[in-house]
Queue: 4 jobs
Job 1
Amino acid sequence: MAAREEIISKLRGAPAGLPSVAEVQAMLEANPGMKCVVCYARISFDGRAKDAHGIEDQHRDLTDQAGAFGWLVVYRYTDNDKSASKEEVVRDDFEQMLADLAAGRTSEGYPVHGVMAVNDDRLYRRPGDWERYLRAFTAHEGRVYWDSNGLQDLYAEGFEIKGLLGVAMSLAETRKKQRRARASHRSRAIRGQSVSAWRPFGWEDDKITLRPVEAAAVHKAVHDVIAGASISEITRQWKEAGYLTARGNLFQYQSVKQVLMNARLCGYREVNGELVRDSDDQPIVGEWEPIITPKAWFALVATIRGRGNGGQPTGGLVHKYLLTGILRCGATLKDGTKCNAPLKGEKANQWVKYKHGYFCKKTVDGGCNGTWKRGDETDKHVTRLVLAKLKADAAAAVTDVPDWERGEELEAALRRRNTLEQRWHGGEIDDEQFFRNLPPIEKAIKELRADEARNLAAKAAAEEATADVEKEWETKTLAQKRELIKKALHAVIALPSGQGNKPFDVNQLIPVWKSAGSAAPRG
C-alpha cells in the first residue's frame, strides 16, 4: 500500500525535471508552436494488487504521445481507484484540473494550452461533469485536446451536443453493466455460489473450505459476543493473535463487526443486507462450509443490534477488579439510613495474603469509609452464587422460549404479495393500484420476519446454555464475567465487619437478584 501511494505521488503534479516557469516562457517565445499540456489519468478500480499500474500505464502513454507532438507536459492529474459515474465520489484532481483550466495556468504558474487523456470517459461519464469540463476548457482560446481517437476540436459547432450524446451512451453502457453485474450476482447467490471478491476470513482461497485456525477464532468470537464480550475485545484479541483481513491489514473494529454480522458464517447468503430466499421463502444455503449454526448467527446479530451503541455492551468503564461497583456498602449511617455507596477495588497492602480488597470511599468522596472486604474470598463467594444461578437458568432456559406461533400469518402475507404480483403481471391491475397496495404488505412481511428472527435468536441463546458453567466461566474475560454477574444481580450488599481483624463471613454479603425467587443458595 505504501508503494502504491508513492507511485501515485510521483504521478501527480509537475513532472520531475520540468524546467522553471521562466525557462518554459523562454521556450515558448523561441518556439511559438509548442504547447504546454496537462494530462489526466483515472481508473475506477485499482485491482486486487492495488499497485496503481493502471494510471501508471496511462501517464506513460500520454507522455510518449505528447513527445511525439513536440508538446511539453507541465502537470499530471491523477484520480486512482475512483469512479466517474457515481455522484457521491469526489475526484479531487479532476476538480483541480477544472480550476486550473479556468485560470489558464497551473498552481505553479505554467500556462495550459491543452488537455490529454487516453479516452474521454476517463474525464467524464456524467452530463454535469462534461458541461463543467467543456466550460473550463473553452474559457481560453486555441487549446488542443487529444485522446485515443486523435485530436478533437472542442470549439467546433455542435461538439457540445456530440459530447452529450457520448456521455449518454457511456452512461447507458455503465448502467447496463451494473444491471448485468447485479443480475449475475443475485443469480449466483440464489444458486448458493460464493460471490465474494476477496477470500472471506475463515475460509481458504476456494472460499468454500474452512481455514481451521481462522474459523476457530470466528466461532469463539461469536460465542464470546453472545456471552457479553464487546467487539472491541474481539478486535484486540485478533490483533494480538496477528490475524489479517483478506487484504492483508490488521483487523479494526468495523472489519471485525462486518465479519461477525455476515450471514455467510451460518451458510446463508445476503444481497444488500437481505437474506436471499427461495420460492418457499426459505433462506438459500450456500455451497461453502458454515462456521456456526443459523440459530447462533441470529443470536449474535440480535445481541449486537440490541446493544444499540455500535455493538458495545453498556457500561464503558474498564475495571480491574471483578466486583467494583457491584458491591454496595451496607453500613448504617448516623441518621439511620444506609450508605449504599459503591465499593471500589484496590490493591491490598503487602503484608496481607490476598492481593486486593474492596472498600467504601471516604465521606468527602461520597462514601462512609465504614466497610472493607478482602477481595479473593468476596470474589469466590459471589462467583459461586452467580454460577449456581447460571446452572439453574441453563437447565430451564430451553423450555422457557416458546415456539414461534406467527408462521401462518407470515405465509398469508407472502400469499397476498404473490397474488398481487400475479394480477399486476397479468394486467388485471394497473401500476397505481399495484404500488399503492404493495408497501403495507411488504412492511408486514418485514415485521414478521424480524419477529421470527428475534424468536430464533432467543432459542439459539437458550440452546447454547450449557450445564458445564464452571468450565465456560474460566474461559471468559473479566469484562464478560462482570456482564454475566450484572445480568444476574442488581447488587451485592456488603455489611461492615466491625472493629478488629475478624474472619471472612459470607453472611455479610447479601445478593440482590434481578428476578424474584431465582436466588442461589447463600452458603
Job 2
Amino acid sequence: MAERKPDPRRAEHKEAGRLSWKSRHIPTGTLVLGGLMLAAVLSAIFMVISQGPHNPIP
C-alpha cells in the first residue's frame, strides 16, 4: 500500500483543540492563591459582623 500523507486539517484541528484547552485551563497555583485570598476576606467580614454594633464612646 502507498504511504498516506498526513491530513493538514487534522493537524490544524489538534492545534485548535490544544489552544482551546489552554484558554480555559486555570493553573492550580492560581486556584489555591485565589481560594486563600477569598477565605481571608470572608473571615475578616464575618469577624466584623460577629462583633456587632459597638460604640466605644459612651
Job 3
Amino acid sequence: MTQPQRTAATTLVEARRRRADQARRVADVLRHQVLAGAFPGGQLPGEAHLCHDFAVSRNTVREALGLLAAEGLVERLPGVGTTVVTAKYAHGLHRLAGLAETLHEHGEVTNEVRTLTVVRPPAMVAQRLQLPEDEPVVYLERVRRIDGVPVSLDLTYLPHDIGAPLMAEDLAHRDVFALIEQLTGRPLGTADISVEAVNADPHSAALLAVADGAALLMVERLSHLDDGRPVDLEWIRFRGDRLTFQTQLRRVRPDIVPQDTRRRSAWPW
C-alpha cells in the first residue's frame, strides 16, 4: 500500500470512529428519552429533526437508531419511522422494598415458585446469615412476572425460623419482605446491595424468555430486620431489557467520610 493509500485508509477509519462516537452519544440521549416516555404515542422524531437537534449527519442518526433497535427498544419500519416497542420498568434503589411494592403501578406482579425447600446452606450463606453451618435454611426460587412477562429470577435463602412459616403462605402473590414483617412483627431495616452485569446462562435465559447470553443485571442483596439481624439473602437476575435502576445520590466531601465507611462501601446506596 502506498503512502497516499495508507493516509486515505487512516482518514476513513478515523471518520468512522468519530461517527461511531457521535452515534453512541446520540443513542444515550435518545435512550433516556425513550425510557422516560418523552415521545407521545411512542413515535420518535424523523431523521431530519434529529439531525438538526443533535447537529450530526443523517448517517450518524441512522447508526444511533440502529443501536437502539439492536437493544430492542425501538423498531424502524419504512414509511412508518422509528417507534418505541419495549418499555423498561424503573426500579428505585433509594428504599428497601419488594418487587410488587416497587412496580405495582406497572401491572400485576406474580411469582412462579419453582423451588421451596429446606436445605443445608453453603458455608458462605450460613456466614452471611450469621448461622451455624449445620443449621438448615429455607431455599426459595421464583420467576417473577409483570402482567405475565418474566422480569427476574430470584434465588433466596432464609433462616429456618423465618422461612418455615413462609412456606404455608401465598408466595405466588405476596412479596417475601411483607410476609417477613408480618410474621416476625418487626420491620425490615437495611440491606447490603451489590450490582453487576452478567450474561444469561442457557437455563436462566430459558426461564426469563431471553436469548442465551443476553445481558442481565445481577443483584446480590442481604436484608436485615430493624434490630440488625440478617434474614434474607438473595441473588436476583433482572432482565436488562426490562429493568432500569434509579436512585438519587448526595455528595459527601471525601475528607469527612469515615475511613471505615470508604473501605466497606463498594456501592454508594
Job 4
Amino acid sequence: MTRRLWAVFLAALVVVAGGGLFALSAAGVFSRTQPTADPPPTPTPTPQPSKPVQPSSPALPHSPTPTTRPSNPARSHPTPRYVFPVGGCRADASQSHHDYPASDIFAKVGCLFVAPVNGRVDEVTRVDTWDPKTNRGPDRGGLSVSIVGVDGVRYYGSHLSAIAPGIRPGVIVRAGQTLAHTGKTGSARVTPPHLHFGISWPTKPNMWWIRRGAVAPQQFLNSWHHGGQLSPVSTVAKTHRTYGADNGCRSYC
C-alpha cells in the first residue's frame, strides 16, 4: 500500500514538474537569445575644407574701341616767337637800304647776332674773300649765317666777326640763340660796324642775290625791337609770287 502511494505520488510529481517546465518553455523563458554585440561604428570621414568660391565678376559693358583724334595743328605747329636779331648791346636798324631790300643794324663789334626765330641753319660763310677792287656781289657779305625758320622764311646776317661754335648747316637753333658776333667783314671794312640783315624765301645753295634780302625787313624789325610779334610770312609769300622765275641777279650785282 505504501509503495503504491509513493509510486502514485512520484508519478504525479513528475507530471506536475513536466507541466511546469512545459509552461515555462511555452512562455519563452528558455528560448530568450543572448544579446549580440553591436557592430563597430563606421568611421565618419573627416570633412575636407572646401575651396572658396570666387565670386563671378559682373559683366562689364562693352567699351568701344578708342578712335584716334586728329592732331591739333595749332599744337603741332605752335605760333613762332620772334626776337630782335641783335642782342647784348644797343642796336639801331636803318629804315632804308640801297639798291635792294635789307636793313643795316648798326651796333659795335662783338654784339650777338641771334636767331630771330626757331629754325635750322641754312648756309654759313666762314672766310672773308671780299676785295674792294672787284667788289663782287657774292663776296660783299664777308662772314655770314642764314637760317630757315619754322615759319618757312629765311633770315640772313652778314659782316660778322666770328661764327659761334657748333653753328653749321643743318643744326637746329632756337629763337634768341647766338649764331655769331657782329663785326666789319666784307664791305663793312669801309663803313661803321653793322649787321646786314635780310629776309627772303629759301632757295638752292649759293643764290646770294636772294639770300642777301628780297623783302624789306624794317616793319618786322621795328615790331620785334619793341617786343612785338609781327610775322613776315604772308609778305614773303606774296613777294615770292610777284618775283616770278629766278634768272639770276637783277640789281647791284
